[in-house]
Amino acid sequence: MSKGLRIRKGATIKLEGAAEKIINDNVSSSTYALNPDDFFAMTPKMLLKEGEQVEAGTPLFYAKHDPRIQFVSPVAGTLQAIVRGAKRKILEVVVSADAEGKAVKHKVDTPEKMGREKVIELLLKSGSWPFIRQRPYNIVANPDVQPKALFISAFTTAPLDVDFEFISKNHKDSFQSGIDVLKVLCEDIILGVDASFSGVFEKINQITRVPISGPHPAGNESIQIHHVNPLNNTDKVWTIRPEDVINIGLLFETGQFQAQRTVAVAGSLVKKPHYIKTKIGAQIAPMLKATHTENSTPARIINGDVLSGNQIHLEGHLGFYNNVISVIPEGNEYRMFGWMPFKDNNVPSISKTSFSWLFNKPKKANTNLNGEERALVVTGEMEKVFPMEIYPMQLLKACMAGDIEKMEQLGIYEVVPEDFGLIDFANTSKLEAQEIIKDAIQLMIKEVG
Amino acid sequence: MSYLRRKLDEIKRPFAKGEKWERFAPAVNAFDTFLFVPNHTTSKGAHIRDAVDLKRTMITVIIALLPALVYGIYNTGYQHFSQLGTEFTFMDAFIHGAWKIIPMIVVSYVVGLTIEFAFAVYRGHEVNEGYLVTGLLIPMIMPVDIPLWMVAISVAFAVLIAKEAFGGTGMNILNPALTARAFAFFAYPTYMSGNKVWVSEAGALDAVSGETILGSLAAGQSVGYSTFEMFQGAIPGSIAETSTLWILVGALILIFTGVGSWRIMVGGVIGAAVMGFLFNLWGANALMSFDWLNHLVVGGFAFGIVFMATDPVSAAQTLKGKWIYGILVGIFCIMIRVFNPAYPEGVMLAILLMNVFAPTIDHYVVEGNIKKRTKRWAKAQLKTA
User: How do the pLDDT tens digits run along chain A, 449 residues long?
Assistant: First the structure.
């Protein structure tokens, strides 16, 4: 038990339509899809052709930089389509599910008996390896690396985000067996939990629990890593999401690849927001139907939370790492004199030029930019929502200039785009901070590796 | 509202992409976005955005400036009539002041915005809102009787040399409004100092005692005002700098809304108070023995530290840097006042000086952060080695 972490900087944005704590596992999906873009800086190489039969756990494609890293089908069926975009880039690999549900079986033993080598081999072969991601850069972990620590954040702070305690409640044993597997990979496992109530996570052994409190982005792994065991220039740290710990646990219990995903479908356009238990890559449309999502107004459907998620269309599929689908109205309307201070206080704002902060009621946010992009003028506002010992504005400027040495010095290794979600939201000049950081990390991977 | 919107869309049609007047779109957009926050939606990054934008920020500064401006207008008339020795009402004074000052504001906006619009069209970016504040600040820190053409030239100099030459809003090193005043101060000294310029139409009167307090102190004369009078602001001086009371109201607006940095303001007051106190102990000349509290309420100090030093572009950008910057502005302001009788108004030069050094301050603050990180890296390397 660690003494805990109290984050002070940041902001909690309360939005309408938080998911009610009911799990609905009765939503079917006829197709499942993997989107290679979910795996940062990974180029996919297809293993199968359209029309081939697959079982749950059959590899669909592998990573060009390391063929051992395979991405497998979450369900049994037929490889229906490889959707390609510009320059033949693979956008989606779609599998249509069949009723039989055959699955690839793997031989398993207790992780202690198998040892590190064999465990890694099984995780790679079964397609569970991509659950583990590596910092810096938040890429799929390199199996040859010995990380100095493994971080799991079960504390979420993003708007409308899931409650991992609720999801994990009925999977305590699988969670523990997942931890036992990970323990073989890395001695130092740190589990960030909600300081006010950690429930089922109290009973998990073999880990260091860090109770965390504070506003968003306290739930981001970067923040926890930075304050608990910061990354140095050559260090590697791994991260894994709580539900994937359960998936790995289940793999060792059943010998089959597990792709369980409990998703909170939330947002002001969702009439009955609640949790849906499904599989990675499931269709979005049936989930929106099950939650009675309004379809008359133009909506923004987001794979992930409203600050760092990706926009998807109605025909899209659930992302690999996502536990949230947010649906909010598009904001393509004009607001007369909307620039006036203290006007339109229903627009969420953490600036004191609005009385928005006075009303604790959840807000109805839309996607309006609420202004236009401008040169950087206001200073100090980014620091207010960035709880790390890093100068965000200076780092962003170094990133814009592509100055690799400066970026290194200012802490690029310790951040990922989602940490700048609140900066995107809050900054007066409407600077696209996440985009800048994303491009900068891509540059780092290319130039430094 | 929808009728107005439709009309506007109609007017804007020839300025759309690929149309005849596309080049001039920034000019039209500048007006349109003042009526309506545009319908642009997020296309990358966070899907929701804060209600705050640069327009709202700049308008907040203008609101904060209004109390000092309104008092400045009244004081212009008050100084004029009380020197004249005639009976007058509040309205008389206000109208006299308005006649003097509104033309200056109009000239400042027309000249400045014309240049801004021209640059926006030429460079193909939207018009930045920064000049709304600069354009109001410039007349507010000028002596009331300065000819309008001098205002125009100062504005043009400030916008072209201090701002656009560096790349426009957000890139300038010096505060543009102070640059305008410094330009006028050095180019037309007879209109910017002395005992005739601070009271409107003082030239027509013989026995005017229209010297500013700092000016009379530098000349070795005594001050005929109490601390409260100086605080309240019925004294000669640049248009809006005299009333510390109403400037304080503006400061509270800036601090409450978070638009102005309280660190710079508090730092500046601390710096000036400590410096003033030290000089009080020394007391070698009239300005040195001028009470440190009075130093805070006379001259342009209050106006400068609240509205000029806090300009986020030309000030230090890091939190620690803001403290250092503010304190140094305060220290240098009093030092220049006391040591240099030719420039009794120290705050202008103090802020411009610190504008130049702000990037250096930030550099060392950020360097501290970098050093901490590299030290941590080195320590980690030792452990693994």
Answer: 457 899 999 999 999 999 999 999 999 999 999 999 999 999 999 999 999 999 999 999 999 999 999 999 999 999 999 999 999 999 999 999 998 888 999 999 999 999 999 999 999 999 999 999 999 999 999 999 999 999 999 999 999 999 999 999 999 999 999 999 999 999 999 999 999 988 899 999 999 999 999 999 999 999 999 999 999 888 899 999 999 999 999 999 999 999 999 999 999 999 999 999 999 999 999 999 999 988 888 999 999 999 999 999 999 999 999 999 999 999 888 888 888 888 888 888 888 888 888 888 898 899 999 998 888 999 999 999 999 999 999 999 999 999 999 999 999 999 999 999 999 999 999 999 999 999 999 999 999 87
Chain A residues touching residue B48 (CB < 8 angstroms):
13, 15, 159, 306-307, 328, 348, 365-367, 425
- Which chain B residues contact residue A418 at CB under 8 A? none
Q: Which structural domains are found in chain A, ordered by start?
A: 5-16+106-254 (3.40.50), 31-97 (2.40.50), 262-342 (3.10.20), 381-447 (no CATH)
Task: State the pTM of this model.
Answer: 0.93
- With 0-12 / 13-18 / 19 or more C-beta atoms within 10 angstroms meaning exposed / middle / buried, residue B206 is exposed
Beta bridge pairs of residue A205? none
Residues B144 and B97: their CA atoms lie apart, in Å, by 9
CB-CB neighbors (< 8 A) of A377 in chain B: 54, 57, 128, 130, 169-170, 312-313
